[in-house]
Sequence to fold (757 residues):
Amino acid sequence: MEQIDQTEHPAELILEIQTRSLNQYHRLHNFPVRIGRALDNDIILSDATVSSHHLEIDLADDGQLVIRNLSTENGSKVNRQTLTDEPLTVKLQEQPLNLLLGTRRARVLRSDMAIEKTSVRNCTGVYLLFCKPLWSVALMFITLFVFLFEKYLETVYAKEASYYLSDLMPYLLAMIVLTLIVAGISRLSIRRWEIGSALSFAALLMLGPQVLGEIGHKLNYLLTATWPLDWVSLVGDFLWMPALLYLYVRLVHHSQALPAIGIALLFSAPMLLYQASDYADQMAIADEFTGEAQFSRELSSLNMHLAPTLSVDEFISYVRTELKPVQTDAQSQGAEQE
Amino acid sequence: MLRRVLFLFLVCHLFSALVRAETLSTSLYAEAEQSIYQVQVVNRKTSNKTTIGSGFLVEREDILATNYHVVSDYVSDPGSYRLEYLSTSGETGELELLSVDVLHDLAVLRSAQPLGRPLKIGKLPEKGAGLYSLGNPLDLGFSIVSGTNNGILSNSEENNILFSGSLNPGMSGGPTLNEAGRVVGINVATAGDDVSFLVSAQYLDILLERIKLRSYRASDDFHSDITNQLSTRSIETLKRLLQNEWEGIVIGRFIVPAEMGATVSCWDGSEEPEERGLVEVSAASCSNELKIYLNKKLSVGSVQYQYAWYETEKMIPPRFYRNYELNNNSGLRVRSDSQSVTPFACKTRFVDVSSKEFKMTVCRRDYRRYKGLSDVLVTGAMVDEPKRGMLFDLYLSGSDFSSAISLLERMLRSFKWNK
Fold:
């Protein structure tokens, strides 16, 4: 009998009350255990949806759990099943027992239950950019420098240094605001400040489209085409932010891959929708016939291109053979008119 | 004392000249009254007029001449419109279109019954002679306008007559008479302030000859007539330009073709150096300033080309090229509508022009109704100098593609790099 007892109750029972980031755990010794908001309960649970006396857990002689709902307000559920006035007798197996008290989730666990592997802070590869404060600061300065250089390139007139400095300030402001928002959300969620990682995230978020745009421009010139920039911009507009969020959530919040993708998509959604509406507008404009010619207008001082340089002779015969008359419905239209 | 006498004499002389002119224009109007008509394009659905112009009887009692642009709506869409005349006495009737000449903006119409007295075509008098233009300005009533002959504009492809008199909308297609009452020109356009243009009556004479050969039968297909006229003109014009000796102008380090003939004129487009500017720009643009009117949305026949040289001392190459690229956008007006033309098809390649490398694009779009005619757009940018740039644009509208490419070929061969 004792042996059977040991195999059936080899471990203590534990009540896990789920609160974000760090859960509360209560060892269950003296049955019955009463849970509720009132201060005379065995386990006090200060959740507004929990009744003063909400739930009672008892241990029967055969080792089964007897769960009794005491709440007349929001009620309780065990493994998604609503408790009635009748107490529920249930055997605790390997799987924990999921409870819902009002809207508060809780689980009854066995102390010998296998727990998830420790999430190791993985500071290798691309994560280095988020882990090391030195990288965060470097990224911030690189981003500011890129924006400064961009401003310098597009200014046609000679300007004082203060002009460029004042132009840089909005970017710096945006980066800091972004950092604080991201770090603040992490602080609320995991109770830790992750300013460095958040700064890396903000800097990379701003830097990415700029760098991708430049790469697209150079590719356009290299290939004498117009599609590379379009495709690279598409990556910059739709994939860059979710990818960065994914990396950030994986590293800082130690999320699993799938939940991390979900969070990344959820938080990028407003940005993605904004970009999508922008693209929809652009497509509507592109569908309008303006009569403008579309071709690779890019010019580059590096002058790197794959297409060979033709002689005037070669170019003229190339144009003559490549630019054929467009088939039009002129004849049929003309006939109709007559 | 002497001065006063002279002055009096002058006044008397002027007065008598005025009286003479007045009596002449009175008699000319009285004579021509039976020969001039208003030509109307009428919407078949509503029977309301959409376009008005003037016209006159010529050669036969049932043959009217007017401008092509007066009847162009009808040519584009004869199903929706019909043509009518309105006489000075208020009679109306339907007209049939016999033939058009879009190059000289002429159209010849026929009425089912004889209308009045046809005018005769005469010779253009010497420069400075008086001319009398008839028509119905702004639908206000038939009028006569006196002015002066200032000769044929030999530096334009149209060879129009410059008439120093005031033409107004609605007078288009009306006759301009010499003092003998003969038609010397057809009212066609005005630049305002007594600067007006007449189509030389010799072109009407040629058109009437052609119609006579067809026994006054209407053309079978106006669109194919127009297409033939335009493509023949384009091929001949470009052939003539190619046969000419071309002048060269210096743009930066290049010598490039300037005027290709008398009909092309070039203007400087250089920019004044700006106070904090970092780039020096010298530029020129050339054009034949021709617009052959086809319809409200479409005019063709222009040949335009322009060059711009950019040079900097103070900019680093990426910064210079950023600015240079922004200018690589010809700014030529190439807008059109999808019913008239196909979208542009473009080909871009790098080309060695006089030992310098250019990124060169040729674009072509074809006219949907006028088969064989294309708009050809060429843009080139020198790309092998880090602190210097040269942009070249060429645009031909309503042109024969092959002839346009021949012109481009000769232009590129004429580029000379000046070390």
